[in-house]
Amino acid sequence: MKEHDLSCLQIRLLLTASSLEINLCQTQLYIHENAIVANPQKQLSSQGPTHDEIDFEFLGNLSGDPYILHTNIFTQGKGNREQQFYLWFDPTRNFHTYSIIWKPQHIIFLVDNTPIRVFKNAESLGVPFPKNQPMRIYSSLWNADDWATRGGLVKTDWSKAPFTAYYRNFKATEFSLKSSISNSGAEYEANELDSYSRRRLRWVQKYFMIYNYCSDLKRFPQGLPAECRR
Predict the structure, then answer these.
(1) Annotated catalytic sites, by residue?
(2) CATH of the domain at 123
């Protein structure tokens, strides 16, 4: 990523009800070390103890419960930076676009071009930022019933197998420092979100965010992570 000042990764995803209404898995779109590759059929895997990782995950749920979108960021093998959201739509009815915008200044998570999360570069505070390791795209279904639904109380109902999710229109766009920004990334060329995007971000975080590690004082009794205190 050293040679690029903006990378845009997006994919359209349709979940099936069976993959979510039980506690099957996380349906996860995440960036991981190595060259960018789209491989939607492989299981998620980690390569090395100090990997970088940027996660979009759908947690399993019971029928009738809201759908939970789980995000996380690992730097040098360390995560614990979760934010979770209810969606304002049913992800099993239509395809929706899930995007990650990477810049040296920040990482933006978007759903249908609406920003839901911004992770700012806090290297000045001693917080590693995922910028030195090449990355690969993975998309997968995997069993996470030890924690994903109601803290692991609800287990996977394997009688509902097979479990499926559908992916299409994967797109990875890298903009070099010397190139111009195309329309697909123009609104994110600036180092900060514009006023409209900030309003949309506040709307999502006010009405749909259900967990933010930066607010979890019980989890961090010795003090919140440094990036949460800026």
Answers:
(1) 53, 57
(2) 2.60.120.200
